[in-house]
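Q: Here's a chain of 262 amino acids. Please give me its 3D structure as tokens.
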Amino acid sequence: AAEPWPENAALYQQLKEEQILLSDNASSLAVQAFLQMCNLPIRVICRANAEYMSPSGKVPFIHVGNQVVSELGPIVQFVKAKGHSLSDGLDEVQKAEMKAYMELVNNMLLTAELYLQWCDDVTVEEITHPRYGSPYPWPLNRILSYQKQWEVRRKMKAIGWAGKTLEQVLEDVDQCCHALSQRLGTQPYFFNKQPTELDALVFGHLFTILTTQLITDELSEKVKNYSNLTAFCRRIEQQYFEGHEKDSSTIAARSSKKSLLR
């Protein structure tokens, strides 16, 4: 039987308007979508030091009862242990397929977001450094930004992305979107009529890409080429976010974002 979900459950992320970056916003939105799909209410709390509060050093993280859990994968497992699951109806083959597509999204979309934020020089100077360091005084703002940049670029080198051009990264994004578009087809969700954690993850990344102002529109244009993916994002926004919350955590209330429903 499902355990009762505490009313004061909270999700922590960085400051929305002035600090949070594309990749963290996408990850946070994916967790919010997952919890909405499970019908588990959560309050979004923005903290300048959310990254440093997280047990894994990554956002978002949730604080439920006396437990703190960060990132979508562990949060899905935590919620499942409490008796709530979106993928129980899938057979073993479907579960394996779902995991493979989630890996694809993390390996392609999330990595592309990180690359754009920390390896594209124009984006780094005009968006990433000012936003990432915004809550801190000089010179700490620059020190923390350069520290994070060094960390991400070291990761990019390790996975073979450091030598890629922006065009190659955008091509990877296009290939990922093509694969997702084909899998989705004309279905409402990736596994037909019911959403799974894959739907939450894809929504988090695609919606954030579509609604975040970057130096150019090249990244969002790759997603817009697939009309079933943009329709999928609109559907989830309408079903799980519009009118659900009356506080500032709703997508519609995000001043740093645009709704897709215009």
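Q: Can you summarize the key feature?
A: The chain has one domain: 8-243.
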